Amino acid sequence: MGVNVGAELSIGEYLRIAPAILSKNEYQRKRVKSSGTYELLRKDLIEGCVMPPIILAVTSAYGSELENLVRRAIIEQDSFTDWASIFAFIERAAQDGELLILDGLQRTLTIEGIGTDKDGGISKEKISEFFGHKIRVEIYVGLSKTGILYRMLTLNTGQTPMSFRHQLEILYYDYIDNNALPDGISILKEVDEKRARGVGRYKYADVVDMFYAYSTGTPMPYDKQALVGELREINFLESYRYKADADDMQHLLEVYNHLIKIIDSRAGDWTAESQEDGGLIRPFGSNVCSILARPQPMAGFGAECKRLIKVGAVPEISTIDAAIEELRFSEDPSTSLNQLLLILDQIAKKAKRIGDAQRAYFQFAFRAMLLPSSDAYLDLSKCWLKGQEDFEMMY
Question: How many Cβ atoms sit within 10 Å of the Cβ of residue 198?
Fold first, then answer.
């Protein structure tokens, strides 16, 4: 549900709201480095060439107040007369930084660069003329998050399309706030352009993968085509809309981080054997953190947590969290973890879809580790082998 408002603005008018969108939306991508395509775009904008409309959307920050107004506009259609109130919400969203760019980010960044003459070489007369050029803007008002994501996926086909994982980060932007996370846990988003290294550091997209696995009960990832189809029916993730008192994603991350810390502490100073010492050429990871802070084990963990709760093996995630304290190695940690790397290497050599196979394996391994009736329950030596046995029976 939502309405689409079209407007023709001068570039000067657009630049009055553009900085708020770019500075307050932490999920925007970085400016694309200079290329022939964007150099041509810059010249066309300076000359006043007609551009496709920039597509914006008001976020869901205004709740029922805006929803009721949009619902009236849809029901009343041509007889609706309170467009001034909708325009006022758009102006308010622009001031509050509650506008998302669905399509046209690089155009906006290029316009901003010209307006501030970042690259130099533009006369004052040209800049003044540039500010007067007209551009078209379309603003979606009253869309749900799923509606915003659907349009983002279908609109985003330009020279620099936003990555699928980046789009998922935006969908879940209010699920996890770094400031609300316990000490020692930090989330790196795609726009941070950093690598997640060390205990407690995770890529946001991998956390989203884990939550999807928990939500759906399967470790397999959604691809873009499947998600677009689901969103078209507007039934995707309806049960998992953000609520202020619902912190399943954060709780799941905290429990998983607890798991990694316990295994890391039990493993001592273990690191993977070097190739010179008989180790693998390309091991899945070099230490506990680099093995487990990846999407394959994270998705396997999320899916298995969901399954354990669904079948009644454990009542809630907190029960799993408490059990993690009891994890131990029944054999030498180095032998057990080197065995895990060997299993993952064997899967990589045999599987047609390596990532999917490793996700499935980790779900079986975590089942062996966390299912109370398992012969390998809480055993960090036996669970990896039991997981392999069950994986090979199924695949």
Answer: 12
- pLDDT 10s digits, 283-313: 999 999 999 999 999 999 999 999 999 999 9
Nearest by Cα to 12 from 113, 126, 97, 134:
134
- The answer to whether the CB of 319 falls within 8 A of the CB of 313 is no
Question: How far is 382 from 100, CA to CA, in rounded Å?
Answer: 49
> What is the number of other CB atoms lying within 10 angstroms of the CB of residue 185?
19
For residue 304, the model assigns a pLDDT of 97
Give the model confidence (pLDDT) of 89-137 as tens digits: 888 888 888 888 888 888 888 898 888 876 667 888 888 899 999 999 9
Read off the pLDDT of residues 235-294 as tens digits, 9 standing for 90 and up.
444 444 444 344 577 889 999 999 999 999 999 999 998 888 888 999 999 999 999 999
Nearest to 212 by CA among 301, 149, 287: 301
> Is the whole-model pTM more than 0.70?
no
Give the 3-state secondary structure of the chain.
Answer: CCEEEEEEEEHHHHHHHHHHHHHHCCCCCCCCCCCHHHHHHHHHHHHCCCCCCEEEEECHHHHHHHHHHHHHHHHHHHHCCCHHHHHHHHHHHHHHCCEEEEECHHHHHHHHHHHCCCCCCCCHHHHHHHHHCEEEEEEEECCCHHHHHHHHHHHCCCCCCCCHHHHHHHHCCCCCCHHHCCCCCEEECHHHCCCCCCCCEEEHHHHHHHHHHHHHCCCCCCCHHHHHHHHHCCCCCHHHCCCCCCCHHHHHHHHHHHHHHHHHHHCCCCCCCCHHHCCCCCCCCCCHHHHHCCHHHHHHHHHHHHHHHHCCCCCCHHHHHHHHCCCECCCCHHHHHHHHHHHHHHHHHHCCCHHHHHHHHHHHHHHHHHCCCCCCCCECCHHHHHHHHHHHHHC
Phi, psi of 4 (to 5 degrees): -115, 125
Rounded Cα distance, 94 and 82, in Å: 19
Cβ atoms 67, 204 nearer than 8 A: no
Checking if the pLDDT of 185 tops 80, the result is yes
- Which single residue is written with the structure tokens 């397999």? 220
